[in-house]
Known about the structure:
The complex is a heterotrimer.
Chain A: H1 9-29, H2 45-78, H3 94-122, E1 130-137, E2 140-145, E3 151-154, H4 160-163, E4 181-184, E5 188-195, E6 200-204, E7 209-213, E8 219-224, E9 229-235, E10 247-253, H5 255-275, H6 282-301, H7 319-322, H8 325-334, H9 350-362, H10 374-381
Helix pairs in contact in A: 2-3, 6-9, 9-10
Chain B: H1 16-36, H2 43-72, H3 78-117, H4 160-183, H5 187-219, H6 226-258, H7 268-293
Helix pairs in contact in B: 1-2, 3-6, 3-7, 4-5, 4-7, 5-6, 6-7
Chain C: H1 5-17, H2 27-31, H3 35-64, H4 74-109, H5 117-136, H6 164-191, H7 204-235, H8 249-266, H9 269-283, H10 290-303, H11 319-331, H12 333-347, H13 356-379, H14 381-387, H15 391-421, H16 427-454, H17 468-497
The structure holds heme-A (HEA) (2 copies), dinuclear copper ion and copper (II) ion.
One heme-A is lined by residues 50-51, 54-55, 57-58, 60-61, 81-82, 84-85, 88-89, 93, 148-150, 394, 398, 401-402, 405-406, 444, 458-459, 478, 481-483, 485-486, 489 of chain C.
Amino acid sequence: MTKNVYFSVKKQLRLFAQLWVIVLLFAVSKANADWQLNMREGVTEISRAVYDLHMVIFWICVAIAVVVFGVMLFSVIYHRKSRGAKAHNFHENVFVEIAWTVIPMVILIGMAIPATGTLIKMYDSRESDLDIQITGYQWKWRYQYLESGVDFFSSLATPMAQIKGEEPKGEHYLLEVDNPLVIPVGKKIRFLITANDVIHSWWVPDFAVKKDAIPGFINESWTVVEEPGIYRGQCAELCGKDHGFMPIVVEVKSQPDYDAWVKQQQLAQLEKAKSAEKRWSLDELMTTGEAVYLKSCAACHQASGEGIPGAFPALKGSAIVQGDPAAHIDIVLNGKPGTAMQAFIDQLSAVELAAVITYERNAWGDSLGDIISPSQIAKLQQ
Amino acid sequence: MQTEYQHYYVPNQSYFPIVASISLFCLAFGAGSFLTAAEGGGDFGMILLFMGFILLITIIMNWFVTVAAESRAGLYSPQMDKSFRWGMGWFISSEVMFFVAFFGALFYIRIFAVPWLAGEGDKGVSHMLWEGFVNQWPLMTTPDPSLFKGPEKVVDPWHIPLLNTIILISSSLTLTMSHKALKLNNRRATSLWLALTVVLGFTFLYYQVIEYHEAYTELGLTLAAGVYGSTFFILTGFHGLHVTIGTIMLLCILVRILEGEFSATKHFGFEAVAWYWHFVDVVWVGLFIFVYIL
Amino acid sequence: MSTTTEQITETSKADTEHHHGPAKGMSRWFFTTNHKDIGTMYLWFSLAMFMTGGCMALMVRAELFQPGLQFIEPDFFNQMTTMHGLIMVFGAVMPAFVGLANWMIPMMIGAPDMALPRLNNWSFWILPFAFSIMLMTLFMDGGGPNFGWTFYAPLSTTFAPPSVTYFIFAVHMMGISSIMGAINVIVTILNMRAPGMIMMKLPLFVWTWLITAFLLILVMPILAGLVTMMLMDIHFSTSFFSAAGGGDPVLFQHIFWFFGHPEVYIMILPAFGIVSEIIPTFARKKLFGYSSMVYATSSIAFLSFIVWAHHMFTVGIPLMGELFFMFATMLIAVPTGVKVFNWVATMFRGSMTFETPMLFSIAFVVLFSIGGFSGLMLAIAPADFQYHDTYFVVAHFHYVLVPGSVFSIMAGVYYWLPKWTGNYYDERMGKIHFWLSFVGINITFFPMHFVGLAGMPRRVPDYALQFADFNAISSVGAFLFGFSQLLFIYNVVSCIRKRNQASNRVWEGSHGLEWTLTSPPPYHSFTTPPKVD
Ligand code: HEA
Ligand code: HEA
Ligand code: CUA
Ligand SMILES: [Cu+2]
């Protein structure tokens, strides 16, 4: 039978070879462009250990592949019926079967030994110089320095216009934040990673640190970075709508620079508290409020205030927003446990909270004209 | 391996499968709309759910009646009988795995999750988030009592649960007696022992209802009472559901015995239900030990 | 209750007297108890789902063609990713294997039909209903499932759209279908073999399916239990997956992967079986190491139960657990290697020809192994901290699933199509289909290794600029692969219609009971069991 083989084997092989030539040419012509093909070595001892491990296993796999596919290709070429090959009649051989069970076993043990060593090192988070608690929120990170009390949120800084393609995309498109995490160089930093709502994962490739942030539990991880610089990463666990938009930026500074930064942060925190005592007009609150709203609330409730039916309620025309300010303030400050509506009491300053609530009550055409004053909120925050 | 040729009965076209699938669809879609309907929109779901349920019961009854009739008509060879046996056996294995999921959850929570939250073991740092939370089982105070208020008291294993253990184990014995009697072709004894088994089944269910009622009204032990309540009710609840189904099946078998069906040598229907009942019994013993006592 | 004994005796007499073909009209498909009809329905259903899931993948690829948000909103993107995964796994690959099992197992073991024919039809008909519920969720308020095919809590419980409840019930229905299907396969193989067909003579496709069916029976109920717990957390205020009540979100992952890892082997073991049938046929040489193939398959199945946490290396499992799961996972390379070596040894010193099924099988061996190698890299826990949840993982599992499972299904269809229909398919078109698919698949999925290593996370609708070039290439490949499947559909349909009479043996090197029947085989295969020596 097999009469209906229109394509000769030779033709197929030739076609195949031609295709590969095209692919190779393509690859070579692009070789100068900086296409990153491989894992990065990173800037820590651990990240280099991981990179080495990755390369070793990779080359072992390549070697095995060359042998196995080589034998196969040999048979495909030489043991073809069209070349007059006659089928031999062997179908068992205890010796080779044992050999190809034992040899891979030995190879695997060889891989497992260095892997175990690296893993044990990665798990040793004792004797840290600095502890930072990292909390994942839908869709931002919170960094709390347990020793110095510095505490802030960090979220995407890329403007919407770039994402929508209305403006050219910047160099660090999607990998830039408003407030980066700042750590000193050469110190052992311990991260205590957790989440507030769903599972996130804190990942900076250059440190080879990736740890899931599990709500209600704390995972430990650590790093010692050897060179000052800016390192970028992303959330690595699907966490809802804007999972793709919660980057991580870490600024590694020299010790004096770091100390100065801590000072400055502490001062700024005091200043913020002061501005709540000032009198704010409706217009001022509305401008601030709109900015805060777009940054913190619009991801869910949408810029139009109309929400997403079935997922996030509309604020425009909502009974809470139109009704008693106390209930409105309560839900924004304390959130609603068991829903995506998070508590904003620690996330925003008194001014920002007052502004955003005022904004919600007066935007979208249904203006109530009332003002929620920052001092009122500041009291609730205490 | 059968050595000689036996005719294997391949049934004709049948409308059971597709109607049963439609009824499952109604059940699932009805339950879905019933549960998701916000305020008062659940009527449609309720009706669909109910229709699906009735349809499914009707089809299954019809299906079994047809199988029994085919068997009586002598269409089934011993090979067919073996198919049914293997089938039932593997069905029960899958049921066992269903409970394994829940037992696994219970063990994981007791051995890992709760101690970690309370500051013990490899991930004890988590305690930072739940200051004051202590590891205990039964879990009387949850990590966040404002969201999940723990139970006030838990069920005392040495009252109703012990009684229910005795009832269920005896019911397995009475069922075995009934099976023995059937094999000896003593039909009167068969039906009496079987009737006793059914009564024990109902008694078990009766006590279980009492126990649930007490849990909700007096002990503060509810589905919402933290993870103790969750594991308690999911395990005992699904077990109770299986006892209910088992009891109904025993009742059907009893009716068939009284109608003169099943012979001393051929009574696979009886045996299948008996296997099921013993499985339910074994699960209970696991429950009694791991949910109530330890 | 209306059926009486007399009626049944009568109809069945009529039945045996004039041995009949299929019933006329639609009732043939709705009410059938015939393993071939049911197999056919499974295969068509699977094809429909493959197209649906594939179109969703193309939507994903279209959005990822360039950085920036072009066509779809992030939330809808997540729904597409999720539904693509769910539909491909539960709607395309699994039903295709069940369809092949239905067609081939009775013919291979010399049985008249599956052991429990009515149950068989029920297993099938649940599926279209389950998937219509699943697809309907896309049109509900808040959209369909958007939490990934792994639906981790609490994203899939507390933070899920309302339609998740329908999703849960759809999963329950699929579970029922799979369990009943698996019971049927086991009973058929254990109880319906022709005289002389001892276990160690079973064709490998039958063996691999037997083991797959055990996996299904053991893990589908776990999935059912898991979604039940989700349902309770969502609607009945339990706290299995909430730390506030003493539960743990990670518990969800343990249970899911206890199901999920055996599930991925459910999608590859029958593929091993198919390839083990095809390679000896076209190498015109007996399969090398039959018994070690059987033992290797069993070892893979056993190991699959103790490796689940390799999907969870980054969730913070204590060190000892991490090491255990790393070692156990690496071990799987040994029995899988045995299989690959046996296939190569079968080809070695054979007399090979390269018809379409053989081409797909050879590509399977190579590309599956590449996927296996990247799997082994993922198994190295410290390295997995860098790979996890990046496109490197996406590349790994598409290599084992698309040129793995899907290629084996296509190989099987080409291989048995002349037997089923009695006609040869168009060999030339088959080959063109193969080469386009082969090239398309590599263009699509090979660059994903690079972007993954360079740091692109999975499940994102938008990405940083340095990933742009490779993503564009991937997208082009995806469309090439997708559209070349039209050739496949055309070839199958025209093979059913045209007359190009196939012989009973079909292939020169074919071996086994199914080739002793006519092409196409009679409606009832072996009403009297054949003798096997
Ligand atoms: C058909 C499906 C299939 C198959 C067969 C496999 C096979 C394997 N998989 Fe894969 N895997 C998936 C489907 C599959 N996988 C899916 C769907 C996911 C992602 C799920 C999700 O998150 O959405 C996944 C994810 C996944 C992960 C998690 C990655 C992560 O999320 O971080 C890991 C980690 O260990 C892994 C490992 C392996 C291993 C070791 C094998 C082994 O079985 C491979 C063995 C084969 C070989 C090794 C090649 C042949 C062998 C030789 C030639 C012998 C000699 C070789 C040596 C000695 C090296 N897989
Ligand atoms: C067996 C399973 C299977 C199969 C076959 C495929 C096939 C394909 N998958 Fe797969 N995929 C998964 C299982 C599978 N996938 C899983 C489990 C996930 C993880 C989901 C998650 O993260 O939760 C995933 C995720 C996934 C992603 C990552 C999404 C993300 O992380 O955001 C991508 C991205 O490119 C992708 C692409 C593709 C493509 C291009 C194909 C192509 O091979 C498809 C080609 C097929 C067709 C196009 C249909 C056939 C075509 C026709 C019949 C012709 C008619 C068609 C047209 C007219 C258009 N898939
Ligand atoms: Cu946070 Cu993904
Ligand atoms: Cu796995």
